[in-house]
Predict the 3D structure of the following.
Amino acid sequence: MHRRRFLTATAVVAGAAGAAAALAPFLASLRPSARARAAGAPVEVDVSRLEPGQQITVAWRGRPVWLLRRTPGMLERMRDPGHLARLRDPDSRVETQQPPYARNPHRSIRPELFVAIGLCTHLGCVPTYRPEVGPPDLGEDWIGGYFCPCHGSRFDLAGRVFKGVPAPTNLVIPPYHFVSDTLVEVGTDPPA
């Protein structure tokens, strides 16, 4: 009787060890590779050399992310009531377009630094940065912003979409926070 229990227990333990040995590589294969983890990792950007009116583009999760240092004039033009009347969603009411800390008129943590994913919300084209005021091809009422050359969508300098264009919503604001006064980390929310 004891011998049968011993053999049964030994077989169960050996079977469990074999199953664990077979399962370990399978579970390890489910983890993302180092390359995939790096592609989704946060990106740190030094904005100390970013001049007023200048924009840089970095890659995060395979998408372009814009960092624009807005001038006081840009911020002032964005508050004009005539400009706001031309926007489809001037108050950014669609919650999925920006994190709670960017749900404000300038759609950013600090008014002077705008951070956005640089993909048109219509079909994913990359709009061009057009900071000039009233260029002939965009009209006298253009105060500066982003123009999508694929289908003509327009966004202001806070990424808010204009009425009457194909893009349905404002540009998306990614999670980001300031690590220091001059270092921005794109990909993570601010610490609580």
Observations:
- The chain has two domains: 2-31, 39-186.
- The mean pLDDT is 90.
